[in-house]
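Checklist before submission:
- one chain only
- standard amino acids only
- sequence pasted in full

Submission:
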Amino acid sequence: MKEIALKFLREMTGSEVAEFHADQYEAIEELANKQSQLLVVQRTGWGKSAVYFISTKIRRMQGYGPTIIVSPLLSLIRNQIESAAKLGLKVVSYNSSMDKNERAASQRLIISHQVDAIIIAPEQLGQSYFSENILNVISGDIGLFVVDEAHCISDWGHDFRPDYGRIVRVLQNMPQNMPVLATTATANNRVVNDIKHQLGDRLSIIRGSLSRKALQLQNIHIPNKAKRLAWLAESLLTIEGSGIIYAKTTRDCEIVAGYLQSMGVNAHAYHSNLDSDAEKIALEQSLIKNEIKALVATSALGMGFDKPDLRFVIHFQAPGNVVEYYQQVGRAGRGIDSAIGVMMMGDDDERIQRFFIESAFPKEEQINQLLNVIEQNDGLKLSQIEPLVNFTIGKIQDILKFLSIENPSPILKDGSAYYRTQFDYELPHNKIERLNTIKEHEWQRLIEYHNSDKCLMQFLRKELDDDAPEKCGKCANCDPTNSLKAEVNQDLAIQAHSYLRHRYIKIKPRALFASSGDNARLAFPIYNFPYRDGKLKCEDGMALSSWKDGAWGDVVANGKKEGRFSDKLIQPMVNMINSMQYQERPAWITYIPSPRHPNLVKDFANQLAAELGVACMDTLFVKEVRPPQKTMENSFYQSKNLDGAFGVNTGNLYSNPVWLIDDAVDSRWTFTIAGALLRQHGVRKVIPIALTSTSNNG
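Returned file contents:
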């Protein structure tokens, strides 16, 4: 068998001299010969996929059925199908990103026993159609069950995913002699013990050293965003090859990539808000082929991305914990002798991490509201739930997923509709408190890592409970002469600050008023006007900044807090306004009135008008006080909250184009509706402008 397995390894790698890494063949033998349940904890690049594809090939030769592989990311699925093809394995995927015809084609191949392996995303295990029409049909014939990135099973892990909780239940209904392989590169003893507790006592463990000998680690404290951008621009000139720059939010990915492009660095943003999977694939391939210098990515580019010659991983902002950092920085240097891993940390990292910790779990009142709505309506589709609860669509989906894996679950999904079950439900407060405490502790450990003067690789390996970790001898603490320069070029810092201050945010008014279909009708005063034909639509506008963006966004935030906007914002707003393109330049300004801060925007609008040499008119007024717009979370509530909120002083307006100013823009409904009112009363064009955008934007 070893000779056969080695032959397959060389076919997969394309190398006639390839040999197994330590424990690789032993894992294959456990699965193919002994039908064991096995947890493999090995560093990224060790070859975990080789173990399960070679095992699949051997099991198929022995006459067993196909392998089920549960895999968390689409990028991982694409790479795995390509790897398996080198062994002549017929592998299909079945996941939610596929269209109806693609899923139907995969189903036909699976049911007719024409595939060697099926790769599924974990959420498929919660889909009744997949479970009843595919999994149940082949469950007695599965040759191997693989759980990739198994740390996602454990709520002690750094990357716990609720959908992984379904795996344990599925395995309980499978034949007891079916071999199971769970793999991960990021599991400390606590996570390993939890995985074993969930998967059962039959689970044996193969664990290897997690040392990444190619990695040269370094930590740098740079307090503000502009200086971090400057450091990046200068340092990337000295680093050979291509790599990944990790940022915590979509907005910061766009900022960093945009700035680097302005400095002549071929960098591109990569995050979950990209237009299509095709765009993500194209970016991944560009990096793999070294056609670009870097991808500036959120954690969306993580597990499964395989580039052996990746030269650097730089964290523009700190991740949430040491284990997550190890997983991400471990993308670099898999197949080369030397690679760089740098973590930057600054003044805003604590605030960003606090946001992620506080928003990790749904609130009890939100859960109760959603359960009541589902119960009262006896089955609702996702699109029908949105108009009935004041949550974003993303939050609704998160709560539904959270509830669906609770045992017993208070909801049942049948087809696309959700129903309330008979089970009472209470939020597991103790569990949530425990997990939040863990996250707080892990964040503090990351800060300790960043501030450590000891060997950095040794610190990471100890945190992962690696056996007898020795010093690496090459990190910035072990060998300071081998580190990158930590100082920031002041001229570049000034240039970066200027970039941030001139990074205007486009405002695109809503194309249509919210329509809730058969569920409700929104009674706008202007709802029956020909808005849908675009006759009452605003023009595109601009915001000066993003909220707390390290430049003008910070100045705006301070002004909101103090109750008066700084005069320093006048000239930048003038510069932005003058940079915009107009078919007909506005001749006056009006503003969005506020019942809670009546003079804040009004005073600034008058100052801005004086600087521009135009009139500022009190055209709009508050007709009815409503809850703050920022408390409205989805389009139905945002638009409904503004229904009839404003009136128009018809004696205080001109027909000429107008700049309509507000301090902040988020959902864009305020501009859309106020602008439509002005258009309704004869204003030819309305151009929205704002001091800042508070859109979460990732």
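Reviewer check: Confidence is low (pLDDT under 50) at residues 514-533.
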